[in-house]
Amino acid sequence: MSNSYRRLRTLTQSQPRTVAEVTTHNPDGTSTVQLMSGAFITVLGQDVEEGSQAYIEGGRILGQAADLPYTEIEV
User: Fold this and answer.
1) What DSSP line would sit under 3-18, residue for residue?
2) 48 within some domain
3) How far is CA 41 from CA 20, 50, 60, 75, in A?
4) For residue 33, which phi and psi values (nearest 5 degrees)?
5) Residues 22-74: tens digit of each pLDDT
6) Does residue 73 form part of some domain?
7) Residue 45: which residues within 8 A CB-CB, separation 6 or more?
8) Domain that holds residue 43
9) Of the candidates 75, 70, 73, which has an alpha carbon nearest to the alpha carbon of residue 38?
10) Per DSSP, which regions of the chain are E strands?
11) Contact of 36 with 22, CB cutoff 8 Å
12) Does residue 1 carry a pLDDT above 60?
């Protein structure tokens, strides 16, 4: 019989996916992206053009994201 808690953890252990703007491509195959918080991070991949939005998960670029307006509402 399997432990239900362990099964639940395997379903929920995925890393969060975020959207960031690709600012530069680096010579080593990585890219520098700017998160919506304003922070810059370096991620693996160069599949998305500079100036475009990209999906980021686990420190790598997954693909191009739609360039939609961002609005933050405090509740």
Assistant:
1) -HHHHHHHHH-PPPEE
2) yes
3) 10, 14, 10, 28
4) -125, 155
5) 999 999 999 999 998 999 999 999 999 999 999 999 999 999 999 888 788 89
6) no
7) 29, 30, 31, 60, 61
8) 15-64
9) 70
10) 17-25, 30-35, 40-44, 53-57, 60-64
11) no
12) no
Q: What torsion, rounded to 10 degrees, do the Cα atoms 49, 51, 53, 57 define?
A: 70
Instruction: Say which CATH number the domain at 29 has.
Output: 2.30.30
Q: Is residue 72 part of a domain?
A: no
What's the Rg (C-alpha) of the chain?
A: 16
Q: How many residues does the chain have?
A: 75
Domain tally, the chain = 1
Does residue 52 belong to any structural domain of this protein? yes
